[in-house]
Task: structure prediction
Amino acid sequence: MPSETSSNGTLLSFLLMGFPGTDHTSIYLSLPLSLVYLLSILGNSLILVIIKVDNQLIGPMYLLLSMLAAIDLCLSLSTSPTVLSVFWFDCRRINVDACLLQLFFLHTLCSMESATLVAMAFDRYIAICFPLRYNTILHPEITAKIGLVAFIRGVTLHLPVPVLLKRLPFCANDALTHGFCYHPDVMKLACADITINNKYGMAVIFATYPLDVVFILFSYLMILKAVESKAMKAERLKALNTCVSHLCVVLLFYIPLIGLTVAHRVGQKDSTLLLVLMGGACLVIPPALNPVVYSMKTKQIRIAIRKRFWVE
Result:
């Protein structure tokens, strides 16, 4: 597939690769991948609808869960067009500007999801450690402001990323590793000095995800400390059970995300398949599994779904 270049030799589009060496088996990969995207879109949409229409699902926890579902829905919708186009139609070309727009949305949404997970950990901390003051501390206005701060943080930190990439010439290799645009992946294709891009990207990463993980771990350490002081075993188990779903979501999100970031910067040239698998685990799997995890581990969500669809 020939490269598209302007009159001065700068690339006008990139080539999306997806899974390397799967030209003859792409149809078999596209079916499960499409099912995963469908599960993500339907699952997160269901969570949003159920919380919206059920009057009993009110409070900070469900508002934060709605934020997480909305972010995951947008994350799936931002990657599925290009990923599925590669596998279903072998349509691998993406315009440079469209690529920069996609990576901006991807990184912004990931930052917003990380901030939302921090807020959900804080929510569980308040609910378990200060149950009588829960609705006073996390009233709807405060929860909405948390969502606004997550949005502003994501946009502010990641808006310079496409701007810094736009100034670079792309005139050599045009093949991206994934079926979507990812900042470290696009950055490596530039035929110019990318020191500023690399340093800014690393600064943003270390200014967000490690701090978010620290806040989440601190919240759960405080929760464990509070749970140990509860006299009744049943109360301890109930308190811990409310945190299990959130811990599962945290592990699903941070482990592949941090792994993908590190692998792109220190990985070898022959680790393309590993990068592709980690990219899928980072941006495709969590949005699909989050609604499943919450519907299984949150009793009120399960009851609301059964009641809405008359499932006995």
